[in-house]
Structure formats: structure tokens, C-alpha cells
Amino acid sequence: MAGLMTEEKKGAGTLYLCATPIGNLEDMTYRAVRLLGEADIIAAEDTRHTRPLLTHFHIHTKCVSYHEHNKLEVGPQLVQRLLAGESVVCVSDAGLPGIADPGSHLAQLAIAAGIAVTPLPGANAALAALICSGLDTTRFTFVGFLPKTGKKRAQVLSEVCGHRETLIFYEAPHRLKASLREIISVLGGGRRAAACRELTKKFEEFRRGSLQEILDHYEAEEPRGEFVLIVEGAGECEAAAEAPQAPQELCESLIAQGMPKKEAMRETAKRLGLSRRDVYQALLEKE
User: Which fold has domain 126-233?
Assistant: First the structure.
């Protein structure tokens, strides 16, 4: 792909992608603290959130706001500073920049401009939850936050339904129950899962069980705190042992979840290894 082999420019600065604590400030690394203090500028997802962290570690480097809504304007400005030889540290509100935030966009701009990009590793909610979930860690898919619209959520869930690897979701407390219901409607309620909340904080909790058991718990007890949801893949769970759905049943199920008919037919054909003509014929036969 054009642009990926750009040589690093001599005299240019370095873009550091710096992990910040997901709760416990003691998870900040010595190297990250040092380079935050030595940098020419810090690009923060939310400067109001980052300043207390900098104050705690007596860091006085200037901060600029760099987030999803201004990245197209601020990103090129930061690249110009990097090309002029300055060093920039990019941080998100918590965890690794570039994971469910605009840090990846800045990295792409810097790489295209021939600027060195290097990580300052540290805390990450997805992997912290995964290793404590009790589920398979050898292969996994990071799904992150589900899309906002019902149609797109159904599409994403349909895409990952057959994945054999462990699935990782992010979710806010006010959306957790609704998302669990949607996940269960597509993946089934029997898959093993772990709801991990408030990681590294005072009220850290891991609730393990089936998806349905976790939903039942939070139907009775209002969820609080930020969640990472780890869900078993389609390999060994009971869903894998079920007989394949008939084309019309699967298609109607996808339509009921909010997917347009044509898209549901296409997805049904893909998942069952059929042609769209076969799916269309199956629907006609049921009418």
C-alpha cells in the first residue's frame, strides 16, 4: 500500500504513544513519567482529565487538546511540529492511545510523513480483563464499543457470531443491560463470559458465568462503572453443537434484529455457505 514504506526523516522528532493508568495511578511507568516531562508537547484526548495525572507526577509540559472532533485540524499541526524536530507524547483518557480513540489517526499521519512512532507501553483495559476472565487467551478479537445504531450493532454481532476466538467488548454502565440482551439474541445466552468492571480501582469486580447469568445479575443490580465484557468464542460453547439453522430461520432472525432484508439475505448466504439465490428460494418456499 502506498505510503507505508516512507523512510523516517532526519531531524524530525518522535511521536510517543503513551499508556496512562486505567484507574490506579501506581500503574504509570517510570519511562512514561520521564518522557512526559521531557516532551515538547502532550496531545491529550481531554486535557481536563490529563492535568490531574500530570500534577500528581509534577509534570509541567504544555498540553494541547487532540480528540475525535478536532483531529482533522490538530493532527496536521502536530505533524508539522514533529517535522520541525519537536517530540510529542499522545495520551488518551485511560489506557493505550489508538484503542477506541483517535490516537491511531495521529500515528497514521506521522508514519505517512516519515516521523518515528514509538510506544510507551502500560495499562490496557481489554487485556487486563482478558487475562483475568478465565477464558481462552490464545486467540481473541477486540470488538470494542458496539455501534450506536441498532442496524449496525446487529451487523457487527452477526459478523463475530461465528468467530472461534474470545471476544472483547467495551461498554458503559447505562448501556450494559441493553447490549447484553442484543449480544444474547445473536450469540445465545449459554456462552461463558466475564463482566469486568472498575479495573484496578477500589471497587474492581469480575463477574463470571454464562451471558444469561450475567444479564440476570445486572437486571437485579444496577451496573456501575466502566465495563469490559469478555465472551467465549463459538468453538466449544453449546452454540457450536446446535444444528445449522434453516436459511429462512436465520434470515428472519437477522431481520428481526433490525437488519434490512437484502443485507440479511447476503449475511445468511455467507454464514451458511449458500448462494443468495438459494436463500431467496428458501424464503419463497416458506411464503
Answer: 3.30.950
